[in-house]
C-alpha cells in the first residue's frame, strides 16, 4: 500500500523503514497533518498519524475524497481523531494499543524521582561548583501513598514499580484490574484518591469524563504539598487551575509530559523563538514544575513496538480489509 506518514521525524523513518522490510511504499512527510497539509497525502491508500496530527472531520473528508481508506495511528491514544467522521466516510482507523508500557510508566517514575530529589537542579549546581544542599530537600518515597487514575497497561505497570519502592498504592478506574489488586493496589472512589494521595499519577485516556479531571475542585480536595504527575494527555489537567494550586502551595510539585496546547510546542526546536503560550510560559517559572515534551514513549523498545504494530495493521488491512487493532466510534 502507499502510506503517507505525517509528522515524520528521523527516528520514525528509522524504525518504520526497519519494520516495513520493503513491503509498503512509505512516504515520509515532516509536516503535521492539518487542513493545510492534508493535500500532501496525495491520495495515498493509507495515512499514518501521530498524537498531534489533526485528524478532524474536514481533514477526513478531504482524505476520503482523494481515495484514502485507512488511518493508521502510531499511538495508543486516539482522542485526536474524529471517529464518527471516519466511520461516516467509510474509513478504517487502526492504532497501537500496547507497546512497552514500561516506557511511559518508567518515565513517570523518572519525573517523580527528579522532581522529588531535585537531581536536575543538582546537576546544574555541581557543574558550577555549587555543592550546597539548600533547596534540594526531598522525601522518602517508601511509605507514601501514590494515587493512580487509570490502571490499564501503563497504570498497572506504574503501580507495580511504585509498590517496589514500598509505597501504598491506591487507584481509581471504572474497570479495576485483578492484576493490580494482586499487587496490593486498593481501589477507592476518585474523591478519596484525591484526598489521600501524596503523589497523584494520571494514566487514563482523554475522554469527555477525564477532560479537566484535575480542576480547581479536585485540587481543593488534595493534601497540601501533593505531587501531580501527568503522562496521559494534556487536557486531563486544567493548566490554569494547577497554576492557582502551585501559587497557593497546595500543589507541592508538578511534572508534566503532556500539555493541553502542546500541538504548537512539542516535538520542535523552538529555542530561538518566543513562546506564545503565556500559560505554558508561567508554568515554566515555578521551581517545582518539571516538564518534558511528550517523551514518555521515547525508548528504543517502544519505537520498535509502535513501528511493528503500525506496519502489521497496514499489512492486515491490505490482506483482509481489517486492521489488527481497530478503533471505532463509541455507540
Ligand atoms: P489502557 O487503555 O490500557 O488503560 C487506560 C485505563 O484508563 C483503562 O483501565 C480504563 O478503564 C481507565 N479509565 C478510563 N476512563 C477512566 C476514568 N474516567 N477514570 C479512571 N480511569 C479511567 O491505556 P494505556 O496503554 O495504559 O495508556 C493510558 C494513556 O496513556 C493513553 O490513553 C494515552 O493517552 C497515554 N499515553 C501517553 C504516552 C506518552 O508518551 N506520554 C504514550 C502512551 C500512552
From TrEMBL:
Protein name: D-lactate dehydrogenase
SUPFAM superfamilies associated with the record: Formate/glycerate dehydrogenase catalytic domain-like, NAD(P)-binding Rossmann-fold domains
The organism's taxonomic lineage, starting at the top: Bacteria, Pseudomonadati, Pseudomonadota, Alphaproteobacteria, Rhodobacterales
Organism from which the protein derives: Cereibacter sphaeroides (strain ATCC 17023 / DSM 158 / JCM 6121 / CCUG 31486 / LMG 2827 / NBRC 12203 / NCIMB 8253 / ATH 2.4.1.)
PROSITE patterns tied to this protein: D_2_HYDROXYACID_DH_3
Similarity section: Belongs to the D-isomer specific 2-hydroxyacid dehydrogenase family.
The D-isomer specific 2-hydroxyacid dehydrogenase NAD-binding domain, residue ranges: 109-296
GO molecular function: D-lactate dehydrogenase (NAD+) activity; NAD binding
Keywords from the UniProt entry: NAD, Oxidoreductase
EC primary class: oxidoreductase
InterPro entries in the record: D-isomer_2_OHA_DH_cat_dom, D-isomer_DH_CS, D-isomer_DH_NAD-bd, D-LDH-like, NAD(P)-bd_dom_sf
UniProt-listed Pfam families: 2-Hacid_dh (PF00389), 2-Hacid_dh_C (PF02826)
Keyword Hydrolase: no
Domain named D-isomer specific 2-hydroxyacid dehydrogenase catalytic: residues: 3-327
EC number: 1.1.1.28
